[in-house]
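Support request from a user on the community tier.

User writes: "When I paste my structure tokens into the form, the page sometimes reloads and wipes my input. The last time it worked, I copied everything first. Here is what I submitted, just in case something in the input itself triggers the reload:"
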């Protein structure tokens, strides 16, 4: 049996043990999009490549393309992995889980790859909660899932002052259309969203964060994402367990 080998730069999103000696991983690659793959024998101590298959590792890999699943041929470190503390790890996991849920396999999207790499780098140096929220705002835009933020999604009117957010309708709701089911989305949280959408991960500029705005925006985005992917996010339960 012959199979094609391809090379790519990847960031690992998820790793699970597989059978007795293998690992199953999902990565996001620079040129091939999201790729799930098996690393055979990766749990044996003597397989050096296997040890590198860790969440958020940045690797140069060669993969065999398979009928159902690709498998690892070789891998090398691109950069030493970031040492993430548990809080940084928890927020990085949210980014990884949402990316996995919103993207299709083998659909190249280099801007998503760049976003993931720069987000994980920035998490270590900056407030991980804000970085994760910013990454999610950007991911929704890049994957085409972004809600309507600028006009009322119901009547199309431009909105000023206090507004609401409908998870089901996927966007802003003005005061006239507001029916009681929607979440509050006031001007502070909207301003913060604008800041997070344009935050430069390679050169982040400081901006003022009010705790109330942050909580409001987090609630809106997390509930919107869970509604879109139609299943709970495990990484959010983990954050809750940590009391974050
Ligand atoms: Zn309206």
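"...and here is what came back when it finally went through:"
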């Amino acid at each position: 049996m012959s199979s094609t080998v391809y090379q790519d730069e990847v960031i690992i999103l998820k790793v699970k043990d597989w059978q007795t000696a293998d690992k199953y991983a999902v990565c996001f690659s620079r040129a091939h999009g999201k790729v799930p793959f098996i690393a055979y024998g990766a749990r044996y101590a003597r397989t050096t490549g296997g040890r590198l298959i860790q969440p958020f590792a940045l690797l140069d890999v060669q993969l065999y393309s398979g009928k159902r699943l690709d498998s690892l041929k070789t891998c090398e470190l691109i950069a030493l992995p970031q040492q993430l503390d548990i809080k940084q790890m928890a927020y990085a996991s949210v980014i990884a889980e949402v990316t996995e849920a919103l993207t299709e396999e083998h659909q190249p999207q280099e801007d998503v790859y760049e976003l993931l790499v720069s987000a994980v780098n920035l998490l270590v140096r900056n407030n991980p909660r804000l970085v994760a929220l910013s990454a999610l705002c950007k991911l929704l835009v890049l994957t085409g899932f972004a809600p309507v933020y600028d006009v009322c999604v119901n009547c199309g009117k431009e909105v000023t002052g206090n507004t609401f957010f409908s998870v089901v309708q996927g966007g802003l709701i003005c005061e006239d259309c507001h029916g009681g089911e929607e979440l509050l989305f006031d001007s502070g949280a909207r301003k913060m969203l604008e800041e997070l959408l344009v935050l430069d991960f390679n050169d982040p500029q400081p901006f003022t964060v009010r705790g109330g705005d942050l909580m409001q925006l987090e609630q809106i985005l997390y509930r919107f994402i869970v509604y879109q992917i139609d299943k709970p996010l495990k990484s959010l339960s983990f954050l809750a367990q940590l009391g974050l």
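Agent notes: The reload is a front-end session timeout and is unrelated to the input. The radius of gyration is 20 Å. Residues 17 and 23 are 5 Å apart (CA to CA). Escalated to web team.
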